[in-house]
Amino acid sequence: MSKHETHEHEQKSKEHQPQAVHEEQHKGPHDPKEINPKLASDIAYWSHEFGVSGDKLHELVRVHGTHVEKIRHALKK
Fold first, then answer.
1. Residue 77: inside a domain, yes or no?
2. pLDDT tens per residue across span 51-64
């Protein structure tokens, strides 16, 4: 197989690869006891659960940590 044929074969292989499942299709939290601020799905889930914006949730995580109960307690103050 020549370099040109190999390149064409590689291009065709890439074209037929299935799409990855998008992370935000995940319905629940990644971990029910921890908030992972690097996961958009966790921020979306927990901000909805707590009734706060994503920015507010990030601020709470920076101040109080990632434990769900600590965030819940901070919101009750």
1. yes
2. 999 999 999 999 99
Token digits for 32? 């029910």
Tell whether 9 is covered by a domain.
no
User: What total number of domains does the chain contain?
Assistant: 1
Asked if residue 73 has pLDDT above 80, the reply is yes
What is the three-class DSSP state of 34?
strand
Domain that holds residue 38: 32-77
**Amino acid, res. 31:** D
* CA–centroid distance for 47 within its chain: 13
Question: What 3-state class would DSSP assign to 51?
Answer: coil
User: Whole-model pTM?
Assistant: 0.65
- 55 closest CA partner among 65, 44, 66: 44
In a domain, 54, yes or no: yes
Q: How far is CA 66 from CA 2, 37, 39, 63, in A?
A: 54, 8, 12, 9
